[in-house]
Amino acid sequence: MSDCLVIGGGVIGMMTARSLALAGAKVTLLDQQQCAQESSWAGGGIISPLYPWKYDDLTNELSIASQVVYEQLCDQILEDTGLDPEYLKSGLLMMDEFNTPEAKIWMQKYRLDYQPHARGALFADIAQVRNPRLLKALKADIINKGVTIIEQTRVEGLLSSNGYATGVKTNQQDYLSDYIVVCSGAWSSEWLSLKERVFPMKGQMIVLKSDPSVVTNIVLDQGRYIIPRKDGRILVGSTMQNVGFDRSTDEQTRQDLHDFASQRFEVLAKSKVECHWSGFRPASKSSKVMLGRYDQFNNVYLNTGHFRNGLNMAPESAKRITQLITHEI
Ligand SMILES: Cc1cc2nc3c(=O)[nH]c(=O)nc-3n(C[C@H](O)[C@H](O)[C@H](O)COP(=O)(O)OP(=O)(O)OC[C@H]3O[C@@H](n4cnc5c(N)ncnc54)[C@H](O)[C@@H]3O)c2cc1C
């Protein structure tokens, strides 16, 4: 099979590279810094949209199809690399909005239901991954599978000849390829002209040090969430700030997130905030994922704009791009 260039080494780029390599492609992945440092690292790792009925059909389809394969995918990556992405079916306890008419319609349509719970509705099948570990494992896995990773190389535009993209221009050198897949997250519109602009939507998150018995399910309330990791660390997120590529975190948000968690689990008021960070979700005006062929060149594909759901949509997004490219050949 032909050469493929994947632009961006977040969860979308690395899963796409993995899937293309498994289909027999010779894959090179370029990242402007190091892989696995941006939104995919910063996210919470919940393998479901937060209130799925608020999203379009494609988001739900990609998410549900990915949920079906996630556990097995993580097991396979663990077996192949020895690195554990910590897939955990912790369930999600939704404290609000589960009884709205749109929620009921969605549950009927997707034949999903919750278990009544004293504090709301428990969606017992919702899982999480420890995303920084998933990314570390994915990087090792794709290297093992023959993907060439080139870091510290910023793509600046497409090269073309006779109506075809022939490769990309970077701040280092040109790279030529038969196919190009754009997986550059919140930066996609920084180097490529897209019909719908992708822009960063900053999210801040904190992690508390606690005990594994304190919170056992992911908890969602008023758009914010609490995610208990296996080792007792508890993530609390997140904000939605349309402020460009500004990475700063602020004391008020740190306090608000800590208060949010303490109001639902009193004991967390005493927990230490171990870390506070931000990340840039790849957002767009429509909030719809951009998945498919780029309108200006037939051999360029988009896999970007996953907004709040890139971790949970990644496996199926990667599969669909791979199918499109392999059917071309
Ligand atoms: C606080 C927060 C919480 C979240 N929680 C969840 C969650 O629980 N579940 C979920 O599913 N999603 C969640 N998300 C969303 C999810 O993280 C994103 O949708 C997903 O990570 C997007 O993946 P990506 O690979 O497209 O982007 P990124 O991980 O940002 O990767 C893009 C990569 O492209 C590289 N790049 C960019 N431009 C160039 C260029 N010109 N040349 C070369 N390389 C380039 C970057 O360096 C980067 O490595 C969350 C996001 C945030 C910020």
Question: Strands of the largest sheet, in order across it?
Answer: 4-5-3-12-13-14-11-15
| SSE-based structural type | alpha/beta
Question: What order do the SSEs take from the amino end to the carboxyl end, as H and E?
Answer: EHEHHEHEEHEEEEEHEEEEHEEEH
Q: What is the CATH top level name of one domain?
A: Alpha Beta
Radius of gyration, rounded?
Answer: 20 Å
Helical content class:
25-40%
Unreliably modeled segments: none
Distance between the termini: 8 Å
Major sheet attributes: 8 strands, mixed
Count the E strands. Answer: 17
Strand content: 25-35%
Describe this protein's structure.
The protein has 329 residues and is α/β, with parallel strands linked by helices. It has a domain at 1-89 and 126-197 and 285-329: FAD/NAD(P)-binding domain. 31% of the residues lie in helices and 27% in strands. It is built from 8 helices and 17 strands. It has helices at 11-22, 39-42, 57-81, 101-109, 131-144, 188-191, 251-264, 310-328, and strands at 3-7, 26-30, 92-94, 115-117, 120-123, 148-150, 155-161, 164-170, 174-176, 179-182, 199-209, 218-221, 224-228, 233-237, 273-283, 290-293, 300-304. Strand 7 and strand 8 form a beta hairpin. Helix 1 (11-22) packs parallel to helix 8. The longest helix has 25 residues, at 57-81. The structure holds flavin-adenine dinucleotide.
